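re: ur msg from earlier - yeah i can do the nicotinamide-adenine-dinucleotide complex, just paste it... oh wait u already did. ok heres what im feeding in:
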Amino acid sequence: MVKICCIGAGYVGGPTMAVIALKCPKIEVAVVDISVSRIAAWNGDQLPIYEPGLEDVVKQCRRRNLFFSTDIEKHVAEADIVFVSVNTPTKTQGLGAGKAADLTYWESAARMIADVSKSNKIVVEKSTVPVKTAEAIEKILTHNSREIKYQILSNPEFLAEGTAIQDLFNPDRVLIGGRETPEGQKAIQALKDVYAHWVPEDRIITTNLWSAELSKLAANAFLAQRISSVNAMSALCEATGADVTQVSHAIGKDTRIGPRFLNSSVGFGGSCFQKDILNLVYICECNGLTEVANYWKQVIKVNDYQKNRFVNRIVSSMFNTVSGKKIAILGFAFKKDTGDTRETPAIDVCKGLLGDKAKLSIYDPQVTEDQIQRDLSMKKFDWDHPIHLQPMSPPASKQVNVVWDAYQAAKDAHGVCILTEWDEFKTLDYQKIFDNMRKPAYIFDGRNILDVAKLREIGFIVYSIGKPLDPWHKDTLAVA
Ligand code: NAD
Ligand code: UGA
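and the outut:
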């Protein structure tokens, strides 16, 4: 029986290993983590992450061939294949701070593998890492090995949160990179055999190590670039009277462009796009490719511009001040169907409004008050480090109130902002919301999910990203 161990029981390690265990009943899969509370949650009734379909998969194989444990050394020692799916945040200090990937967690995992291994192993990079990381990992493992042979593979993960189980069941592709030696090819085949239990062979791509590592960064950069491109267009649409949804539809019909990932928004968020592009930029700079680095940097700049533009639009339309005004924030997660708030655009929008002394009433169906307060008090890039490095009890801000109902959030508010595209926000009773708000009542739709004409009929002043402006907003064009 093949034994797999995955170091890191997070958004990637947990769902990915659960699906491997489900699809490969003859493989024993152990997911290990240094976080005692995370492992306890994986073994309990309330899983540590919200992901549609995940609970069902975990329940089918937990304690059958899927195990969650803090006994890291035992499971690593016993495994034939060790996946490493630990966090690879942006460095906050020292060389490359604010750009380079921090490989502290990866390195400590690699050193631990070297310390406890008693048999040959395939070590799989599941985390997103800078290109050439496998070389460093190989050095750590081989310099510490006692006659033990390691093969390093790069097998980046492409799942998106909110659709992780669907993506894992039916991936567009599985990418495996390895050494072009007979041993390297043998290791690739061993990992291919695992995925072949459910992924059609023509969707399993094999490459050399560096292509696999770089393809992951490239894929995220291309995806994020699409969003920044359409968001840049949204600003031009507002200036000219074009409608960004119509423009996206029209260009997406070109099969070379395609319709997906062209939704204009308040900006992209999530744990990876920004981090991975910054990492890509850093690698380009280290290789002397300044123009290439600047090209990708612009994707982040436009994303920051979009978030600022949204805040400025709110403030300028409310007579250039939101001081003391109640603003309802509907949605805090970085996208729908997840409780994840890492790098959510809501953090920057809320901080921008708080900077202008607004009072915020925040509602998200999946995010806790503790998480929101923590996010709003944390420094940039600190969020992706273990909990003990984060502020323990963030100062509760009197300007921020977290509620469990959209109507309560909007009661007596001057404005409502939609920051996450949760389905339930599409079907709220907006007449009721309008009746209970201060007038003029504003709605700022940062996700383009609402029926603008209907809202205007009710009496709202509506701003929807990239859509023709209300006369009200045209008159308050003091927007950055
Ligand atoms: P995460 O923070 O949810 O999980 C990482 C886990 O690793 C944490 O639980 C942490 O406690 C644990 N950990 C850190 N160091 C450890 C060590 N030495 N030993 C044992 N456990 C350790 O992160 P994530 O979202 O699962 O992302 C993991 C990696 O996958 C990152 O490199 C990320 O870029 C990449 N990735 C993420 C996604 C996503 O959608 N979140 C998708 C594709 C790739
Ligand atoms: C993204 C990629 O889609 C995954 O392939 C990749 O594995 C993952 O990053 C990763 O490496 O972590 P994820 O961040 O979970 O997945 O979610 P996305 O669906 O890509 O959304 C990212 C952000 O872009 C969200 O804030 C979303 O609202 C925004 N977005 C997405 C838009 O603003 N417009 C769109 O058209 C699509």
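cool cool. The first strand starts at residue 3 and ends at 7. ping me if u need the other ligands too
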